[in-house]
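Q: Got a minute? One more chain.
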Amino acid sequence: MTFSDTITADPITSDTITADTITASGPGTPVVRRAISAILLALVMVVATACGSESESSGPEQPTFEFIIPAGSGDLIEQGEVLDILPRELKTQVGETIQIRNEDDRAHILGPWFVGAGETLRQRFVTVGVFEGACSVHPSGAFTVYVDPSNA
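A: Always. Here it is, folded:
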């Protein structure tokens, strides 16, 4: 790589720069790799900070609402049993958390959520809204969550 002998003033330090003081910095050079690494590290730190919360540092918070789908629920529902696992409608507030633990050997749909066999869904509500959809464990076949503003 060649450089011209033109002298240019550095706008930050007001020093002069000559072709003798410039080093090559292409995509594979250490200067560029360090710059890219620094940018990526900063991005990871920003994302990690945005995703975290104070409650995570002291362990998981207790859910406001907790429901368990017992083992064998899918079989019982297929046999016509009516199970009392969760309400048709749930009223909650911003900042509250719902947890649904599926101990069954099959997946279930609960409103807008899919909970696989042996999985646990944990949802903390951060905005006002309505979450609704089909429900494979409620006799009505539907589940709706209303999230109201926080009273805090």
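A: Residues 1-8, 17-25, 46-57 have pLDDT under 50 and may be disordered.
Q: Perfect, thanks.
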